[in-house]
Amino acid sequence: MSTRTLAVVSAGLGVPSSTRLLADRLTTATVDALRERGVTATVEVVELRQHARDLADNLLTGFPDQALRGAVDTVVGADGLIAVTPIFSASYSGLFKTFFDVLDKDALTGKPVLLGATAGTARHSLALEHAMRPLFAYLRATAAPTAVFAASEDWAGGDAGSPALDARVRRAAGELADLVAGRPPTAPADPFADPTTSFEDLLRGNGG
């Protein structure tokens, strides 16, 4: 079996959070779908609430600290991405948007992405199409056709979710698995590629 890496970005604010719960459901279903396609998946989760201060500092300085750099590298280096946000005022959260603002504009080009969102009412479900999908289209990622929205009523029966939600999760996971399995593994980033300071300047002690 071949191996692929999935990065999971959850922008939930609470502990526990319905956003993380949906992210976990999507992840489990995608791992299962990849296994059916002969692919073993490793999963790395990025909880954005843990990087809120790091993101604010990055906006002010233009440079990520070590913790945020690790989160960025996880997402950029993954073969596929599951991105889930709570919906506030009919759009993705500010924390979610700030993280993707930090990425290089070409970092997600061609990367398979499964979009998910949560909110208290199904009235917010269109945010997936009028807000999240355009964001990832701008980043030139390859979004799975099915995006998954979960409102409070979808969890009324417990963490297992409603049958309708389960069907959406399985369909979206299968689509992401097809996209991920159909691409060659992402090559590890070369830390010495395209250095901002030449090696000659580094040797002279002019590293900026």
From TrEMBL:
It comes from the Bacteria. Pfam families: FMN_red. The keyword Flavoprotein applies. SUPFAM superfamilies: Flavoproteins. Keywords: Flavoprotein, FMN, Oxidoreductase. Residues 182-208 are annotated as: Disordered. The keyword Oxidoreductase applies. GO terms for molecular function: oxidoreductase activity. Residues 6-155 form the NADPH-dependent FMN reductase-like domain. PANTHER family: FMN REDUCTASE (NADPH). This is FMN reductase. It comes from Blastococcus saxobsidens.
